[in-house]
Structure formats: C-alpha cells, structure tokens
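User: Fold this; tokens only.

Assistant: Input:
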Amino acid sequence: MAMVLAFHIIFAAIWHWHALFMAIAEGLWLRTRNPVYLTLTQRWARGTAILFAVGAVSGTVVSFDLGSSGPVSCAMLGPSSACPSRSKALAFFTEAIFLGIYLYGWKRISPLAHWLAGVLIALSGVSSGIFVVTAMPG
C-alpha cells in the first residue's frame, strides 16, 4: 500500500498544480487574447487529462488497499473520517465532471463558461486534497 500511495501522491500533487496553471493560462488568454496563452492552455489541458487518469486509477487502488486492511483501518480511522471521505468522493466526481466539460467543450460552450469549468476543476482538486488530509488520523 505504501508504494501505491507514494505513486499516487506524486501524481495527485502535480495534477492539482497543473489544473491551477491551466485555469490561470486560460484566464490570461481571455483577458489578453494572446495566442501563446491559448496554446499553453491546450497543452496543459492534455497533461491535466493524463495526470487525472493516472491519479484516478492509482487512487482507486489506494482505496481498495485501505478497504482490504479491514478492521484495522476502520478501528484506526473510525467514524471521524466518514464525512471527509464522502466529501473527498464528491470533490473527485466534481473534478471528473468538469474535466469532461472542459475537454469536450472547447468549441461547444462559451469561452467564459469553459474557463469557469477550468476554475472549478482546480478548486475541486484542491478541496479534494484537503479532504484527504482531513480524513487521515493525527
């Protein structure tokens, strides 16, 4: 479990920054209409999608590892981790939904709505990380 968690934390941390930079670059493109920012945004969007996929798969393995330790982890974490864990799941699904809107909405939604989807990806990613840290025992 430690090896999978170490792998997952690296990709998750990089992903959160990647999503934030993607949203900032698109915001700069909306403000200045400089094509360099649009190119940067589109390249970071591809990287963000790949990092999200790798993080989602490794995070699923981490969840199964936690669940397979059964009574030990349940006794250690206890009921205090239920709310942050559920909130983390909600934040993860929010990330996934808005990443889908972001990736497939380039020419389908308004530029402002597209940028807001990117901002929501970054915000839900950061909140997801906060909920994970909150759920862990002291």
